[in-house]
Amino acid sequence: MAPVNRSHEFDLPKKVRTAGLRHALSAKAQSEKLIVLDAATASEIKTKALAQRLTKLGGANMLIVDGAFDEKFRKSARNLVNVTLLPAPGLNVYDILRRDTLVLTKAAIKAIEERLS
């Protein structure tokens, strides 16, 4: 008889995943590592200019979450080593805790509120 491949995966219940996301977001807010922007936009595709703007925000290792990224902003940020762009539906606890600073746009906050309610 041939060996049988079995999956030993398990999924967390939705309530547990939602509670984890809420806890991770509140932990960032309490540690003052949460920054809210009106929008994540760039006037031109310049990585150096964007890096300077992000340095002024005070974060070295950032996760930026937006509903839909501006094309110029996305292209400017793709070469930055310590910056990760993530759309709001892909937000998860692992990425929040892995980065030092969490930057949310107002569109992302709206999407997260809809997801958590």
Structure description:
The longest helix has 17 residues, at 14-30. The chain has one domain (34-116): 3-Layer(aba) Sandwich (Ribosomal Protein L4, Chain: A), CATH 3.40.1370. The chain has 117 residues and is of the alpha/beta class. Strands 1-4-2-3 form a four-stranded parallel sheet. The protein is built from five helices and four strands. Strand 2, helix 3 and strand 3 form a beta-alpha-beta unit.
Domain count: 1
Task: Specify the CATH class.
Answer: Alpha Beta
Average pLDDT number: 91
Largest sheet: 4 strands, parallel
Strand order of the largest sheet: 1-4-2-3
- Summed up, the helix count is 5
> In the CATH classification, which architecture applies?
3-Layer(aba) Sandwich
Please indicate the percent range of residues in DSSP E strands (runs of 2 or more): 15-25%
Q: Given the helix and strand composition, which structural class is it?
A: alpha/beta
- The sequence of SSEs as H and E is HEHEHEHEH
Count of distinct strands: 4
End-to-end separation? 50 Å
Approximate shape: globular
The CATH topology assignment is: Ribosomal Protein L4, Chain: A
Which descriptors apply to this entry?
117 residues; alpha/beta; Ribosomal Protein L4, Chain: A; 4-stranded parallel beta sheet; 5 helices; 16% strand; globular
Give a short overview.
This protein has helices at 14-30, 47-57, 71-77, 93-98, 106-116, and strands spanning 34-37, 62-66, 83-87, 101-105. The chain has 117 residues and is α/β, with parallel strands linked by helices.
